[in-house]
# Entry
Amino acid sequence: MSKTALVTGASSGIGKAIAIALAASGYRLVICGRRVEALQELKDKLQDKTEVQILQFDVRDKEKVKGAIQNLPQEFKKIDVLINNAGNAHGLDPIQTGNVDDWDAMIDINVKGLLYVSREIIPQMVERKAGHIINIGSIAGKEVYPNGNVYSASKHAVDAINKGMRIDLNGTGVRVGAINPGLVETNFSEVRFKGDSEKANSVYQGYQPLKAEDIADIVVFMVTRPSHVNIADLMVLPTAQASSTIVNKE
Ligand code: 8X3
# Structure
């Protein structure tokens, strides 16, 4: 029987690419996100490859997260792989002028949302003594850069949660690992800069950024290792990037 993967933030970017790659590798999918039309489009696209169930929720809404996961149809209830991908940056402002609504959004989505989803899925993995959780962090979870303040704090929290999950789940057979990407060309910067496409596009100009598919390939590699192999923590950068602030642009 094929395995089932649940991917949060699957309607675009890295999450969508992961869903497509896992479908190509034979996984059945539960794709989660806020925008049901985008999820439906993805489901239609994957229809001839695998079975797909859509879960529409905002990870900030803990009751909705709980209800949606608990009410999954029987054939999608057993989650073998959880990809905690949902996350965004909102704003890139100095701490002294930061927008508190942006701070709420980043902490609520990137940290609390990840916890709500995980809390619903982990017990069944523990019970079966099997499962694999991949947390999508960021280079911003390993370093802090100017104006990255709260985004970086949220991703440092993901780094801590990744380690904490691995410690607490030690001995249960559940694997926990993280991928921490650097610059990946997605709508990430468009969201960060609130629709200012000129600013957003300039982030990815003058060098070759990573593509969402580059991260998806790595997810497939991680989940297809034998069960005694856990890739615990990876940082993945474009070759042109040495750190958050050092990018070799032409
Ligand atoms: C995305 C990468 O460098 O903008 O998490 O923080 S960065």
